[in-house]
Amino acid sequence: MGILEVSNLSKVYGNKVLFSALNNISFSIEDGEFVGIMGPSGSGKTTLLNMVSTVDKPTSGEITIKNKNPLRLQGDELALFRRRELGFVFQDFNLLDTLTVGENIVLPLTLDGIPVKKQDDELNRISKILGIEDLLNKRTFEISGGEAQRTAIARALIHNPTLLLADEPTGNLDSKAAKTVMELFEKINEKEKVTTIMVTHDPLSASYCSRILFIKDGAIYNEIYRGDSRQQFYQEIIDVLALLGGSN
Amino acid sequence: MNLREFATKNVQRNAKAYFAYFLSSTISAALLFSFTMLIFHPDFKVSLFPQHIKNSFYVTTVIAYLFLCFFVFYSISVFLKSRYKEFGILYIIGASKKLVQKMIRIENMLISSVAAVAGILLGLIFSKILLAASGKLLGYNALKFYFPVKAMIITFSAFVIIGIVISTFCTFIIKEDKVLNLIKGTKRPRPEPKASIILAIICIVLLAVGYFLSVTSSIKTITHRIIPVTTMVVVATYLLFSQLSVFVIKLLKRNRNLYMKKTTMLWVSNLLYRIKDNTRMFFLITITSTVALSAIGSVYAYWRDKEYQISREFPQAFFFSNTYENKDEVDLKADFIENSLRAQGISYTKANDEIKFVIPNGDIDEVVIINETSYKKLASTLALNTIPFNERETIKYSSFSADKRKNIRLNNIKLEVTKESDKGILPAIYRDVNVVNYRDVYVVKDEVYERIDGVKYYFGALNVEDYKDTLDICENFYNNFESIDENNKLYNNFLKAYILESTKIAYGVLLFSTIFIGLIFFVTTGSFLYNKCYMDIIEDKTKYKQLNKIGLTFKEIKKILNIEIGVLFLLPYIVAVVHFAFAISALKYSLGIEITVPALQVIGIMLIVQIIYFFIIRKNYLLEMKKSLI
User: Which positions make up the signal peptide (chain A) (predicted)?
Assistant: First the structure.
């Protein structure tokens, strides 16, 4: 039994003109995996991520995260589920500019009423892993995009979530910052054993994953596993994307 | 298509965006018009009121006009800022600064003049309704409706001038680099608001001094204190929102156990920016609400208290005085009243005697002295107990005793003030029509009285059980004696029932006018807040949507928004209520007016209305917010 089980997931949008965004998708992700989701625009990869992140509800099908079924939860219970079980990294960071970097990171713990001492300990631990110890007292507009994304990752990880979900985390970054961020994702996955799902366009970013699901027209098109060489994996991704066709 | 056509079409086709601006312009025009109309009202004569009321009225007028200017400028700057993107596009396609300025000028002229006309119409309807309502409420037509040509001209020309001035100064509001930044999509960094500890301390000191001066003012000092105290409190209020609040929030942030607990971090950090961003708005709302509250509160308190005031100032139902040479005239008047009372079968008490006006040694203000015999007569007409005293002593009677002297020298005779009474035994008699001053009355032994030189006056006083029954006698009296009094400037006629009636009318007018102005202020500030709120919700929606994604529950969002909207809607009013409490207690301490009940009534009504308004806005805000969440 994987940490995430998705079975027969479908999503249909619209009232009169129906559009099927996801079509009977099933897959499972094991504890400690780093899975990338790729596919052309409109293939349904973001819809899929939204279902898994409980932000959107499927038309049919089941999702289990660590033996829990978030689809049975309602409203605020769902928000609490996200807060405690999931960690989010967004393309545009979504940091609050009224808070310092450190305050942004501990926000999930603060909201849960964790004692300040424990918050500080966790903040120290996580900021060391991400190499942002020196930024903690800075404001969000004083740091670079790469630093902002590392802050966002720290916020997503501080409460030790079951699942880390990333939506185009390198989409707004230059290549150097993107590389640093992806190396961190890889490191966290390997050292901290954080199960991660990442949606991306970028084959280079995707090559850091251990497995990639390709989606086309709402269904799984292909699935490839990384071998020893990241370089080779990158080549394989390019090949699949070429076969997939369309704009990636 | 020339520029004029472009600008006109801009307004026509983008009517929705311009509508909010047009609406606020119209409201300010209506406000300006109604206010000016009232000030120029032929029946509204400020000169009739005592000096402290006149002073308060001038302060109110100045603040009202300043507030109007601020309001217009504020809504224009908000409106122009919301169009940065449009200006950006114009700049990028090569429009010059001058061209953009010209476009804004044409637009503004168009909107301002239409808004002025609409505002005048709105103001006319509004004031017509209110004037009619006041007639119903007060039982007589306090102010008649008139066609205010002057106010119309002033409002219209003011708005056209504002339109021209704005377009000339708009380049100060629109900064080209900011506009271009906006179109490039770079977010303007928002550095943490800073507060200066010195300014925060100055704020506290100013508030403390201002409050202290207002609660310690007396009848003598209040006239001079109104303007400096107002200035102090106005400055302190600005500092309160721009400095002290930032300072306090920062202190709060330093207490990490408090700050880093659940949603506190979110609302505290946000509040820091909110209050700083809205400093000017908070300031304006607080000051105008304070002015409106104080105006309504004090006039209302006076209006409610008028019977008590009049009883204190005019102890007897009828009182006449004149120089001793005109003794016969006083007797004639007293006899007339006596006969009228007898004819109506009203029982009365009567006293007549002489008094002297003396300036005590080393003093400037005149006092009145009476001898023991007439003191006893007066006391018996008023059913007061007389106080025994000896030759070297004197009893002071004063309804507004300001100085607490231990002894007094009259014609080099030193007398010890043994007893003071705040009950009046004589009305505030004046010798010179131009100097209306409350004179202290000293009672001395008959022998002492004879030895003191002074201007001799003669008085006649009559008292009845219920003076309100004598209004018709008062009217008859005036019909009879008008011609006699015409040439004589030294007489005093105090007919209590008549005084009560005319005070009722005069303060009724004033009360109505202040309520009218206050109402306009509250409506305007209310619409101000409403606009502000709906500009915030756009930003808040995206923010809370993201936070909800990472697990902020709707319950928590509700909690945060309750505080944030609560602060926006209630903070300025609460500060205003505190200011008002001190302002009106000045009235209590200086004029001895009963204020607790009227003050609580005014505060209660305002807060209830404001809280209801808060709940309505909050409900809509949360509903809107919930829709945008998952």
Answer: none
- Res. A47: pLDDT tops 80: yes
pLDDT of A8: 84
Interface size, chain A vs chain B, as Cβ–Cβ contacts under 8 Å: 83
Residues of A within 8 A of B192 (CB-CB) are: 139
- Contact list in B for residue A94 (CB cut-off 8 A) is 546, 549-550
Per-residue pLDDT of B350-372, as tens digits, reads: 888 888 888 877 777 778 888 88
Q: How far is A117 from chain B (nearest CA, A)?
A: 9
Q: Compute, in degrees rounded to 10, the torsion defined by CA atoms B397, B401, B403, B405.
A: 20
Q: Which two three-digit tokens encode residue B26? A: 């119209």
Does B263 contact A116 at a Cβ distance shorter than 8 Å?
A: no
pLDDT at A144 over 50: yes
Q: Is B465 exposed, middle or buried (0-12, 13-18, 19+ CB in 10 A)?
A: exposed
Give me the residue from A55, A94, A110 closest to B262, CB to CB. A110
Question: In this model, does residue B528 exceed pLDDT 50?
Answer: yes
> What residue ranges define each of the domains in chain A, with the CATH number in brackets?
33-52+82-244 (3.40.50.300)
Work out the pLDDT band at B186, boundaries 50, 70, 90.
very low
Number of H helices and number of E strands within chain A? 8, 9
CA angle B350, B355, B361 (to 5 degrees): 155
* A15 interface with B at CB cutoff 8 Å: no
Phi first, then psi, for residue B218 (nearest 5°) are -120, 180
Subunit contact A76:B553, Cβ cutoff 8 A: yes
Contacts of B546 in chain A (CB under 8 A): 90, 94
Per-residue pLDDT tens for A90-100? 888 888 888 88
The reply to whether residue B555 touches residue A76, judged by beta carbons under 8 angstroms, is yes
> For A228, which DSSP code?
S
Residue of chain A minimizing CA distance to B256 = A116
Render pLDDT for B87-141 as a digit per residue (tens, 0 to 9).
777 777 777 777 777 777 777 788 888 888 998 898 888 778 877 776 666 656 5
For residue B592, is it left (φ>0), alpha (ψ between -120 and 50) or beta?
left
Query: How many Å separate Cα B316 from the centre of its chain?
Result: 33
- Shortest Cα distance, chain B CAs vs residue A165, angstroms: 11
pLDDT-based confidence at residue A248 (cuts at 50, 70, 90): very low
